[in-house]
Amino acid sequence: MTDPEILRYTRESGDFSRMLESIPYARFIGLACDQFGDDLIFRLPQKEVNLGNPILPAIHGGVIGGFMEMSAAIYLMMSQDTVRMPRIVDFSLDYLRAGLNRETYAECRLTRQGNRVANVMVTAWQKSRSQPIATARAHFLMED
Amino acid sequence: MNDQIRRDRVTRFIDTLNQARELGLSVTEAGKGCLTLCMPYSDRIIGNPETGVIHGGAITTLMDTTSGSVILCALDDFELCPTLDLRVDYMRPAEPNKPVYARAETYKVTRNIIFTRCEAFQEGGETIANCVGTFMRIGKDATPKHYRDLITGAGE
């Protein structure tokens, strides 16, 4: 997914801008990432083109899925000791609340890292972490 | 309701979704309880710059949109049904520079829940991804009448 050189730079500097700039889909939805100590918080800024339901209005469920999916992949890349690229196998997404037209956040947890497969949990929220708008679970195949 | 009405309703519906417009989604085929949408290839949705393969997130949006819109092809009255969950299995990366299609069907419609199946594929190619989804029926009155009329074309 990402140039090993850029991955190395991101790990050393904690600056995700170069990595995210290099992935067109991340730019397309506006994904951002901030590092706090060892923790990563992913951010999806408010963006009109990301909307689905025009009545609420609400962020398109697919964009929330894409945001969480890419967050999980980046999180996983960053958590490896070596340069290994995750390839998504499956993705299971529960929508808990409408994602309103405002900034959205996500955090990830590595539930299980095997030799070849990793299981990642993702939680997304807006107003309060205690009121998630969606949770997701993904399996990735790790490639050297 | 005939297939032309189904096609028109879905076209009007996805035209109100900013993200679907941004991705350039269009209706390929509509029938009773089944629907195929097309997503053109674009440099802007690439997930891997080295290979030009589009990101799974765009496929997820295509499949979510198709699964949500196939409901318009299954019910006579327009009801906006929020997605409860989606499960996507990725079979293979989509080939660059070619559109991706998603074909969805409602395989069970109950009073409260609609169950959908969806397959993403490319012309002459194998399956890119499979998806199953569940949608909640909140009743047509949960959606404002002016929006329902816009989709069904009742205002015309």
UniProtKB/TrEMBL annotation, chain A:
- Please list which residues make up the signal peptide: none
- Which part of the chain is the Thioesterase domain? 59-130
Superkingdom as given in the UniProt entry: Bacteria
Q: What is this protein called?
A: Thioesterase domain-containing protein
Care to name a GO molecular-function term for this sequence?
A: thiolester hydrolase activity
Check the record and name the SUPFAM superfamilies matching this protein. Answer: Thioesterase/thiol ester dehydrase-isomerase
* Organism of this sequence: Marinobacter nitratireducens
UniProtKB/TrEMBL annotation, chain B:
- The domain of life for this entry's organism is Bacteria
Q: Which GO terms describe its cellular component?
A: cytosol
| Domain Thioesterase residue range list | 52-128
Q: Which UniProt keywords apply?
A: Hydrolase
InterPro entries to which the protein is assigned, alphabetical: HotDog_dom_sf, PAAI_dom, Thioestr_dom
Give this protein's Gene Ontology molecular function annotations: 1,4-dihydroxy-2-naphthoyl-CoA thioesterase activity
Q: This chain belongs to which protein, by name? A: Thioesterase domain-containing protein
Tell me what organism the protein belongs to: Marinobacter nitratireducens
